Amino acid sequence: MLKDITLGQYFPGTTLAHRLDPRTKILAVVCYIVAIFNCHSAWAYGLMVLTLVVSARVSKVSAKALLRGLKPVLFIIAFTAVLNLFYTPGTTLWRWGVLNVTHEGVVMAASMIARIALLITGTFLLTYTTSPIQLTDGLENLMGPLKRLHAPVHELAMMMSIALRFIPTLIEETDKIMSAQKARGADFESGGLVQRAKALIPLLVPLFISAFRRADELATAMECRCYHGGEGRTKLHVLHYQTRDYAVLAFYLALAVGVIVLD
Amino acid sequence: MSKIFQTDNLTYTYPGDEEMPPTVALDGVTLDIERGSFVVVLGHNGSGKSTLAKTFNAVLLPSGGTVYVDGMDTADEALLLEIRRRIGMVFQNPDNQIVANVVEEDVAFAPENLGVPTEEIRRRVDDALEAVGMTEFTLHAPHLLSGGQKQRIAIAGVLAMLPECIVLDEATAMLDPMGRREVLNVIEGLHREKNITVVLITHHMNEAQHADRVVVMNDGHLVMDGTPKAVFARARELRDIGLAVPDTVALLRELKAAGMDVPVDAITVGDCADAIVRAFSGSTSAAGQPKSR
């Protein structure tokens, strides 16, 4: 039952967006976000939407998949929109009791909706086309300069990739423990919220104990394979920027600069 | 032949805490292992065999006595990486020793740690995967493989360090018979073709059949040391320390007890079958009807 949980919503593919260097995609998304927050006029937002649509087309990610990403944040979007709608001072358009809708409020609410929606879908496009391993690799590489400031960049990336590696293993284990507890009469499905939460204790305790044991064994196995931190480490797959990466980066950079300067 | 391991009066004590008193796991073990040999270490649970293995690549440092690996003292911290590179360790639980999400990345883990150049890593990964017969799974996710396949990946992972010796610490204990066969075949192949020293720690007596030396541990002591034939001839002593002789030897012993003229030191299934056939064709009238097992 737990097998169908998908983490890191990656859709494998071979499109241009998939083949781009993960660093390019991360930087492009950063540029895109910067551009979004500097948009003021309708034409700028239009340009942003157009960019997103074209990028999604190139990555062959369906509109449905992109919009699905918005579902969890729908409440936040609505909440921000309502707040902005009623609490922005300016010329009053409509008034009812304490509620006061201003012209500025409507504009603000609309642009807030557009900003959050574009921000979320833009980031989702990144995770849809980049596998978690590539993402980790790209982030580690981009954060590289922070190592000089003694930031544990390699360690964080290693933790991230081990976590990703063990998600399926731990899910499988949870399934097994659940079956074992059910066979002993445990009931995970009925009762109220509190009762259900309590029923999870006999599941979580063995799961945690086994996770700690695994961590201990994995650490030994890693040391046996000469792991001694990130120092002097080489890589099987080295990231290389290609011409297409420069082109894409230049485009997004131009987008961000253009919006800041012109709008 | 030079010695790859030399232990001298090796003692190891697990430190205790409030609930547990300290336990002596190894008590005065003196053992030499020749380069290029295939040694099986037998013993029941708690005999100290796994502890012994962990002292071989400085995962555990001796509480007393010394361990030398290729003439290097494991207590010398400056030699740690070189010792661990030469001695590849494969553990019991395949899930808990695979680090990466992709088979090739996992095999590349050790050479990456050692700072091997990228092209050389690629070559080593491909060679190691070929040596364990897993080339077609290069880009697979490890958690979708069978137990035997995962252990073969773990073996490839240590092979990529180009080790002198592979120590398998109960590496077959969690596998089904098929998986165990796969792993043992790979190990035998590596020993035969690449002349890698193998130390196989197990409680499956049948796995001792391909060894050229069997070492038996009990209660932290080394109690028997010799060829498989010599060790399994001491069936009663083995039984006293909670170990049984392989099925083949047990069968031949019973046949002999029933009056059939068979040798009792044929360990492999093939040798055992030959011995029985010979006994039948040699003296069809002399031998009584053998008891079926």
Task: Explain this structure.
The complex is a heterodimer of chains A (263) and B (293). By secondary structure, chain A is mainly alpha-helical. Chain A has 2 domains: 16-130 and 239-262, no CATH class; 152-224, no CATH class. Chain A has helices spanning 16-19, 22-36, 42-59, 63-68, 74-87, 103-129, 132-143, 153-183, 193-199, 201-224, 243-262; strands spanning 92-96, 99-102. In chain A, strands 1-2 form a two-stranded antiparallel sheet. In chain A, a hairpin with a 2-residue loop joins strand 1 (92-96) and strand 2. In chain A, helix 2 packs antiparallel against helix 6 (103-129), helix 7 runs antiparallel to helix 8 (153-183) and helix 8 packs across helix 10 (201-224). The longest helix of chain A is centred in the middle third of the chain and has 31 residues, at 153-183. Chain A is globular, with a radius of gyration of 24 Å. With 293 residues, chain B is an alpha/beta fold. Chain B has 2 domains: 3-245, 3-Layer(aba) Sandwich (Rossmann fold); 249-282, no CATH class. Chain B is built from 10 helices and 10 strands. In chain B, helix 3 packs across helix 4. Chain B starts with a strand and ends in an 11-residue tail after the last helix. The relative contact order of chain B is 0.13. Classes of the chains: A mainly alpha (263), B alpha/beta (293). The interface between A and B is medium-sized, with 29 and 39 residues.
List the helices and strands and how they pair.
The complex is a heterodimer of chains A (about 260) and B (about 290).
Chain A: H1 16-19, H2 22-36, H3 42-59, H4 63-68, H5 74-87, E1 92-96, E2 99-102, H6 103-129, H7 132-143, H8 153-183, H9 193-199, H10 201-224, H11 243-262
Antiparallel strand pairs in A: 1-2
Helix pairs in contact in A: 2-6, 2-11, 3-6, 5-6, 7-8, 8-10
Chain B: E1 3-14, E2 23-34, E3 38-42, H1 49-55, E4 64-69, E5 72-73, H2 80-86, E6 87-90, H3 103-113, H4 118-131, H5 147-159, E7 165-169, H6 177-194, E8 197-202, E9 213-218, E10 221-226, H7 228-232, H8 235-240, H9 247-257, H10 269-282
Parallel strand pairs in B: 3-8, 3-9, 6-7, 7-8
Antiparallel strand pairs in B: 1-2, 1-4, 4-5, 9-10
